[in-house]
């Protein structure tokens, strides 16, 4: 969450990033508004949108120097939106955000032209810092610049992605995952595994 009391002490603003305007695209209104306020306080002209179509319409009328896109939105994805915005303005700098950190998605985003890829939650300073450090190529051709996640981490991300697709319905998520509802509830109570996984982490044999 963005703390308004820290805004004035931020070292990142429109001048330090070298941009005057930014487009924020996320289907969650509260997140858009908080991030919009934080960016305005840092000197940006801010445009906001909740989906692909609204973002393309606004960007076509008032292009921005930067864009922050949610990867997973109803309708077309943030990755599709990234490609469309770069067709309209090839020199735009874009960061993708995702509530579910994904190594393949990170690589796809950077190779499609994104400056960087961040996992939520990310505040204004996280985002602007990524713009500052992300101007070089992050994924060289033929190489993977990201460490492989643990199997436990992959499982945790997959479970939460399926649950999100089911609108938080645990019974439906359990059905899609092919596990018992109680097993899913136990998994959901666990914290996200660290990468690399702790060697003494207990195994889950509830499936």
Would you kindly provide a written description of the structure presented here, covering whatever features stand out?
With 207 residues, this protein is α/β, with parallel strands linked by helices. It has two domains: 4-133, 3-Layer(aba) Sandwich (Rossmann fold); 147-207, Arc Repressor Mutant, subunit A (Orthogonal Bundle). 43% of the residues lie in helices and 12% in strands. The chain contains nine helices and five strands. The chain has helices at residues 14-17, 29-41, 52-61, 78-88, 103-112, 124-133, 151-165, 170-177, 181-188, and strands at residues 21-25, 45-49, 66-70, 93-98, 116-119. It has a five-stranded parallel sheet with strand order 2-1-3-4-5, sandwiched between helices. Strand 3, helix 4 (78-88) and strand 4 (93-98) form a beta-alpha-beta unit. Helix 3 (52-61) runs parallel beside helix 4 (78-88) and helix 8 crosses helix 9. It is elongated and about 50 Å long. The protein starts with 13 loop residues before the first helix and ends in a 19-residue tail after the last helix. Mean pLDDT is 77; it is low at 1-8, 135-148 and 195-207.
């Amino acid at each position: 969450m963005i703390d308004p009391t820290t805004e004035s002490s931020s070292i990142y603003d429109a001048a330090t990033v070298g941009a005057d305007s930014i487009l924020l695209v996320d289907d969650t209104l509260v997140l858009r508004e908080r991030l919009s306020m934080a960016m305005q306080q840092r000197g940006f002209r801010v445009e906001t949108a909740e989906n692909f179509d609204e973002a393309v319409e606004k960007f076509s009328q008032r292009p921005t120097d930067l864009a922050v896109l949610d990867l997973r939105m109803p309708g077309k994805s943030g990755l599709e939106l990234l490609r469309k915005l770069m067709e309209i303005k090839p020199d735009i700098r874009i960061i993708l955000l995702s509530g579910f950190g994904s190594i393949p998605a990170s690589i796809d985003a950077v190779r499609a032209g994104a400056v960087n890829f961040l996992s939520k939650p990310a505040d204004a300073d996280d985002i602007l810092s990524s713009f500052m450090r992300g101007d070089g190529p992050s994924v060289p051709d033929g190489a993977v610049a990201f460490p492989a996640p643990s199997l436990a981490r992959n499982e945790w991300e997959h479970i939460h992605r399926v649950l999100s697709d089911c609108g938080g319905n645990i019974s439906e998520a359990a059905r899609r995952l092919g596990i018992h509802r109680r097993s899913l509830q136990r998994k959901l109570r666990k914290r996200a595994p660290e990468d690399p996984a702790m060697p003494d982490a207990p195994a889950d044999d509830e499936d």
